[in-house]
Specification:
By secondary structure, the protein is of the alpha/beta class. The protein has 3 helices and 4 strands, in the order βαββαβα. It has 2 domains: 30 residues, no CATH class; 50 residues, no CATH class. The strands form 2 sheets. Strands 1-2 form a two-stranded parallel ribbon. Strands 3-4 form a two-stranded parallel sheet.
Length: 90
């Protein structure tokens, strides 16, 4: 599942996937802080250089955790200092 709040990004990515012959991807325009998926739908959530521009990062992280199965994985790539972005706290 590919999601993006910007319709043009969804369209461009869908076109590129089609050009490459990728057929196992679904596309959805939506915001990360309001994911329209049922609880525990996915095995993994991955965000590439997106978390630092979320309107509501806390809501987005909660949403990602909500739609991931209990034994699933959530991973976000961000720019910035390690100390400023670390969420690996006990």
């Amino acid at each position: 599942m590919y999601t993006d709040p910007v319709a043009g990004m969804v369209e461009t990515t869908q076109e590129e996937a089609g050009r490459r012959g990728l057929t196992n991807i679904h596309f959805r325009q939506c915001s990360a802080d309001d994911l329209p998926f049922a609880d525990r739908t996915f095995d993994t959530a991955v965000g590439g250089l997106s978390a630092m521009v979320f309107v509501d990062p806390v809501a987005a992280m909660r949403g990602a955790l909500r739609v991931i199965r209990q034994d699933g994985y959530v991973s976000f790539v961000v720019w910035g200092r390690t100390r400023a972005r670390s969420t690996n706290q006990q």
